[in-house]
Amino acid sequence: MAFKLCIRTVWTCVGLLSQIHVNESNPYEDCLSREAIIDFAREACSKSAFYLDVLQHHGAQETQKLLVFILEKWSTAEDLIKKLPDPTLIIKHWVKELIAYEEILLLSSKLCREKHTKIVDILLKEVFVTKDLLVERARTLIWRARVIRASGTEHLKEGAAPVYYGVPAVITKTKRNT
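RESULT FIELD:
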């Protein structure tokens, strides 16, 4: 419980510090520099990933909610501050959960397919939404198609649709940006 509270407190601080920094009338007189907030966010990612590993190792429930909370707070702070370090360690933790679901896939494909779909939907709707994350979005769409396709021929059309409609659009947008 203490680790969950630490994670929530640190990311609430990241959000509040970002808001305070943006609301300062004179950026040269602020008490906390932009670089200090960026370093604080980097450290928050590192510590949060460690705490999430500990929580998962001890079988804690609701780590998925914490992951979503962290990514929401990171996204909010990124919108305000810009140039925050990528939450790579947090996303790697989420990927560990996904790999665990894939291992279970053989045992309970329907349950895992539903979990995969839910996680992918969260990633596509809440995490990979900015233009700089189009490649990750395309990879997620391809991964989703593989999971659906692996669940049997009755879901083959459903598995091909995201790739058919989503990836070409991502590639087109990426080419325009370069």
